[in-house]
User: Which sequence fits this backbone?
């Protein structure tokens, strides 16, 4: 009697009666007048699904110490040992002890159950390894790209600043900042702690066996301190070196150059190297993997011309002041842009100033494949979980006899639910462990998905499987195991005890359970089809990239780069003669059929735009500009690259500084500005308000070329007419070959070095291979999504097979009766196939 609760009912005319919960049983008891207790009935405790979930939530809240919240879900009293303890602390201790004990018991039974079903366990673990591993692998990339801190001091406060203009169609077109605007922002801004600039420059390093090209970066004062970069060896530039700029002769070299050129010798500090025929003193070594920006190997202090408003070449980064927001910075820049437009109308009319977080600028649009893969693996995980739920549900139903026996012996629904959820969670956690190992295997392949700046310049290309990734995998596994295990257990752990315990009876399953299974399979088919459609779209995108016409013949085309800045070829005549001599020497190489030079490779490696004015066309409204792709070329470029000339003529050697200014446009530009007209003889020119610039006469129309530039239309100007103009120092030599490249490439280099032995040639590649490299991210995305889609389809097929096998096994008696009544084997087969086809059709819709 001491164990009865205070709510025990009494009666004046008879014994005291009550129905008591006792563990997983209901006791019907009566108290006699002599205070003895008689058990008059015993029944297993049967709960509804909501009631079971309430008990589960109540236990979780109590375990976490939130007992007040737990009381909202019902009385916490039970007949267990901790009920009679005297203090709340003791009750909590006993609760934790018994919870751990129960879990160990459930775990032991789970492992014993797994040993009896190795095939089921292996198949389920394989499924979960791919489903969870795919999510973990892609999350590791997302963590690298979006979540990991930048290897720059307080990188979230760094902002990329750019000039921009607005096209007539409203498109925002951004480009690097001019020195004039850089100085104005640095001196007049109230929202930035500091603003720094960097400018790419190619150096020729001589003194060795052959001249080498070195990628250099000219940096403004405070560049290293603003980014928070400290040399690994040596010292940063001091204030005097920054004041003198390039005249100081000081340089800092990359860790890569230190290792390859100097064998990682720390005594290199203070030694000199020759860049562009000038001795430079090494004062520091950058940290390992830091080659920012533009894959640099040399950093040189520089003082930029504060009056130059036309050269939009500077890569500008600013650090926001503590408490300043990006929106405040943008508002300040908008006011400053208006002021600059009024003060410098010749250079700043229609120009704005833009600011974006540095990380967003580093990523740009290269995250699209990562986000697409993230969506794909989420669908794959859903398919995996639905499939596993379906398998678990079928397995629970196959264990109905076991469940019934356990219930008859006193195991209530909550107790059985706990056991089944433990089994499921253990499976999911083991699958998560397998997924982590899968991530380790995939990480080297997935590194290509990291945007170029983060991977190649900031040393974030290694996919780290650290604490964040492991935590993600664990949480994903546990949560998915509990959610989907509970869903399966709630549907599969409510047996028909009378039917099960009747010897020789056979459970035929309920229509409700079959409907649940069918709903799971339909959802699995739907998810698989979504994943397949997404994979199809990505494959089609990749196929179009690979198969579409580039506008030129990449096969048999060799490209190499040459930079003339600082090489001694500063005059128009010197550059013209040099390129003519290079072309002549190259064409004499056996196996070379044609050679030419351009300032931009259409596949990669830089971009130049030009603001133009079209004769007879009204200038765009204020705040808008006409901007096109800008290219200088030498004669025979169209022939060398295989670009068709649709109308008019090509450039000739006589198109030089002494001849009238001419231009060739592509067919897109022709249809854009002169629709339905003949563009030959029309005139265009640079858009430079207040400056007298010559008109260019259109003499030819070239075919469209797939261009990596930011703009749609393209014009080509003859290099010999403006050999010292903007963008004319960085050159791409194009060579058409009719022989083995391994024989031609050394001969071409030797021929060019016979013209000038100090010219550094670099980035020597075949154009078709270069194009293939440019598609690497798209290719990996297409392959990975396709693999996931195929696996998702296989899981859906497995789900249909599992369901139909279970349904057929339940209908054995019905099928036997049909055959006994005359149904042949074909009719039975059609019945089963028809049932499966219905699920496929519904899921497809």
Assistant:
């Amino acid at each position: 009697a001491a164990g009865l609760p205070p709510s025990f009912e009494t009666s004046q005319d008879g014994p005291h009666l009550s129905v008591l919960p006792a563990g997983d049983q209901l006791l019907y008891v009566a108290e006699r007048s002599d205070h003895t207790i008689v058990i008059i009935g015993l029944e297993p405790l049967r709960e509804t699904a909501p009631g079971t979930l309430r008990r589960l939530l109540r236990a979780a809240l109590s375990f976490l110490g939130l007992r007040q919240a737990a009381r909202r879900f019902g009385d916490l009293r039970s007949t267990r040992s901790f009920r009679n303890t005297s203090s709340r602390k003791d009750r909590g201790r006993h609760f934790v002890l018994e919870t751990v004990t129960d879990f160990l018991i459930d775990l032991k039974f789970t492992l014993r159950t797994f040993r009896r079903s190795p095939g089921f366990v292996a198949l389920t673990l394989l499924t979960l390894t791919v489903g969870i591993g795919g999510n973990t692998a892609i999350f590791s990339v997302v963590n690298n790209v979006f979540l990991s801190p930048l290897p720059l001091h307080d990188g979230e406060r760094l902002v990329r600043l750019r000039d921009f203009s607005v096209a007539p169609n409203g498109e925002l077109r951004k480009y690097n900042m001019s020195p004039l605007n850089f100085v104005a922002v640095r001196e007049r801004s109230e929202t930035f702690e500091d603003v720094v600039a960097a400018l790419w420059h190619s150096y020729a390093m001589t003194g060795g066996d052959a001249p080498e090209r070195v990628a250099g970066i000219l940096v403004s004062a405070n560049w290293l301190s603003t980014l928070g970069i400290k040399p690994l060896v040596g010292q940063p530039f001091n204030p005097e070196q920054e004041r003198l700029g390039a005249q100081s002769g000081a340089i800092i070299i990359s860790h890569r150059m230190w290792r390859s050129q100097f064998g990682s010798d720390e005594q290199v500090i203070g030694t000199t190297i020759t860049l562009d025929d000038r001795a430079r003193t090494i004062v520091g070594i950058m940290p390992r993997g830091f080659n920012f920006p533009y894959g640099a190997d040399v950093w040189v202090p520089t003082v930029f011309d504060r009056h130059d408003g036309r050269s939009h070449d500077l890569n500008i980064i600013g650090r926001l002041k503590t408490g300043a927001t990006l929106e405040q910075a943008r508002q300040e820049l908008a006011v400053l842009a208006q002021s600059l437009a009024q003060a410098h109308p010749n250079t700043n009319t229609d120009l704005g100033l833009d600011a974006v977080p540095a990380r967003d600028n580093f990523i740009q649009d290269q995250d699209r494949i990562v986000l697409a893969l993230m969506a794909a693996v989420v669908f794959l995980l859903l398919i995996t979980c639905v499939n596993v739920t379906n398998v678990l549900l079928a397995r629970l139903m196959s264990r109905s006899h076991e469940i019934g026996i356990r219930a008859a012996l006193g195991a209530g629904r909550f107790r059985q639910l706990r056991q089944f959820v433990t089994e499921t969670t253990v499976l999911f956690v083991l699958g998560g462990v397998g997924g982590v190992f899968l991530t380790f295997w995939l990480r080297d392949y997935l590194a290509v998905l990291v945007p170029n700046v983060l991977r190649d310049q900031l040393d974030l290309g290694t996919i780290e499987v650290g604490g964040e990734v492991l935590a993600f995998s664990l949480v994903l596994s546990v949560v998915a195991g509990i959610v989907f295990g509970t869903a399966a257990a709630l549907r599969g752990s409510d047996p028909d005890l009378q039917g099960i315990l009747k010897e020789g009876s056979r459970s035929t399953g309920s229509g409700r359970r079959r409907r649940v299974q069918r709903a799971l399979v339909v959802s699995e088919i739907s998810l698989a089809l979504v994943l397949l459609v997404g994979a199809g779209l990505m494959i089609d995108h990749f196929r179009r990239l690979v198969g579409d016409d580039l506008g030129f013949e990449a096969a048999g085309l060799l490209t190499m780069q040459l930079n003339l800045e600082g090489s001694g070829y500063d005059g128009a005549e010197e550059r013209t003669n040099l390129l003519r001599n290079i072309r002549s020497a190259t064409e004499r190489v056996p196996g070379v059929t044609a050679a030419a030079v351009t300032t931009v490779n259409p596949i990669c490696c830089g971009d130049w735009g030009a603001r133009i004015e079209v004769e007879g066309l009204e200038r765009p409204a204020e705040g808008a500009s006409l901007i096109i792709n800008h290219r200088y070329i030498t004669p025979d470029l169209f022939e060398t690259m295989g670009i068709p000339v649709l109308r008019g003529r090509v450039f000739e050697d006589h198109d030089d500084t002494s001849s009238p200014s001419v231009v060739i446009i592509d067919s897109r530009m022709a249809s854009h500005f002169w629709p339905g007209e003949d563009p030959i003889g029309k005139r265009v020119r640079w858009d430079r308000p207040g400056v007298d610039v010559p008109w260019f006469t259109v003499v030819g129309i070239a075919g469209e070329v797939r261009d990596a530039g930011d703009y749609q239309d393209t014009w080509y100007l003859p290099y010999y007419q403006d050999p010292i103009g903007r963008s004319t120092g960085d050159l791409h030599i194009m060579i058409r070959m009719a022989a083995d490249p391994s024989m031609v490439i050394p001969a071409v280099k030797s021929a060019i070095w016979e013209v000038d032995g100090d010219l550094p040639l670099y980035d020597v590649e075949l154009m078709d291979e270069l194009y293939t490299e440019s598609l690497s991210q798209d290719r990996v995305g297409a392959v990975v999504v396709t693999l996931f889609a195929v696996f998702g389809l296989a899981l859906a097929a497995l789900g249909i097979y599992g369901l139909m096998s279970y349904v057929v096994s339940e209908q054995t008696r019905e099928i036997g009766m049909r055959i006994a009544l005359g149904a042949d084997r074909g009719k039975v087969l059609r019945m089963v196939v028809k049932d499966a086809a219905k699920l496929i059709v519904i899921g497809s819709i």
The two ends are 63 Å apart (CA to CA).
